[in-house]
Design goal:
five-stranded parallel β-sheet, alpha/beta, Rossmann fold, elongated, 13 strands, about 350 residues, eight-stranded mixed β-sheet
Length: about 350
């Protein structure tokens, strides 16, 4: 983290506390001692720490409310005016400049510093077993990494196996059953540091001999999106797993181009729409299948792309090389990444 936390305070104790908290997150502070200086940084700074005196002056100057404001004062709890000032400025936390406040202060500052450019979350769900959703998810993550986007791939299937599809079983790093969630907010930087990485993709799946249970994914997805440009989540069809789709900007339902796939997709889409926002379909070619045009007439969502049936793809996965690149897989990646604004290199 190289952004500066603005400290609008005349109180030395507040400035020192803010400097300690910022340093713990690898950030620096930029102290300002006047309302004019504070106003220059007010809208742009990722986070602002203010003391009571400066809070009063800023409120009198009628600065706009903003997120990620931390109001620090030694007399918290004894001054109703302080809480009114907090509401006026938009302060998410009012605390004393002491060690007891450190955990909450670090959480607020981490959210501000890590969340300056949140990732897009892309969910992939198979209409039926064997639809190829994991292959599509892995292919999209690899295509994103080839474009130099910071990419995280999350396997939410309790049976795991996405590392095999990715061709990355031997990579060292945390899995679901070894990841220490710590019972609180997961720092984004810490998450990426402990995950295994393969061909530019940081990924999370379960160990081959680990617990079949996948913990609540919301905290991990939240942390991943603060540390990446794209988070791809491979979501099983089980109703309890579909709630995570609420975090996704775009949900892809992978549908085999046959009668069974279409019927299953129509049933699944009802449950998907309960949680997901924007939902589209991706057709997967099958020998003697219906084709994309017929698929489009039978589904209530747009069919934005298709991946052709190619024997090279499962052969490459089975050989441990990950999904083979084909013209149809490249076209699929270009279309989908383009839909979420990641079609070209940063």
């Amino acid at each position: 983290m190289d952004a500066a936390v603005v400290v609008a305070a005349t109180d030395v104790v507040t400035r020192e506390a803010a400097a300690r908290w910022a340093a713990a997150l690898g950030a620096v502070t930029e102290p300002v001692g006047s309302v004019a200086a504070a106003r220059r940084h007010w809208a742009e700074a990722p986070a602002v720490v203010v003391d009571a005196a400066m809070a009063r002056s800023l409120a009198d100057a009628e600065v706009a409310r903003r997120p990620h404001v931390l109001l620090v004062d030694a007399e918290v709890g004894h001054d109703d005016e302080l809480w009114r000032l907090a509401v006026r400025l938009g302060a998410a936390l009012v605390c004393r400049p002491d060690a007891q406040a450190q955990a909450e202060a670090l959480e607020l500052l981490a959210a501000a510093l890590e969340g300056r450019a949140e990732a897009c979350v892309l969910a992939v769900v198979g209409a039926v077993g064997g639809a190829g959703a994991s292959t599509v998810a892995a292919g999209l993550a690899l295509a994103s990494a080839r474009r130099s986007w910071r990419t995280v791939l999350c396997d939410l299937d309790p049976c795991g196996g996405l590392d095999l599809v990715l061709g990355a079983e031997v990579e060292e790093g945390a899995r679901w059953d070894t990841l220490d969630l710590g019972g609180g907010r997961l720092p984004a930087g810490a998450l990426v540091e402990v995950l295994p990485r393969h061909r530019g993709v940081s990924y999370l799946t379960r160990s081959r001999d680990g617990s079949a249970a996948v913990p609540d994914a919301r905290g991990v997805v939240s942390a991943a999106r603060r540390a990446a440009d794209l988070v791809v989540i491979d979501v099983p069809r089980h109703p309890s797993a579909l709630s995570v789709l609420a975090a996704a900007e775009l949900t892809l339902v992978v549908v085999p181009e046959d009668l069974r796939g279409v019927a299953a997709a129509r049933r699944l889409l009802g449950a998907v729409h309960e949680s997901a926002g924007t939902v589209v379909a991706v057709g997967r070619g099958v020998p003697g299948g219906l084709g994309r045009a017929v698929l489009a007439t039978h589904l209530p969502v747009p069919v934005v792309a298709r991946t052709a049936h190619r024997r090279a793809v499962p052969r490459s996965v089975a050989a441990g090389r990950g999904p083979a690149r084909t013209r149809s897989s490249d076209a699929l990646a270009a279309t989908v990444l383009g839909l979420v604004g990641l079609g070209t290199r940063p």
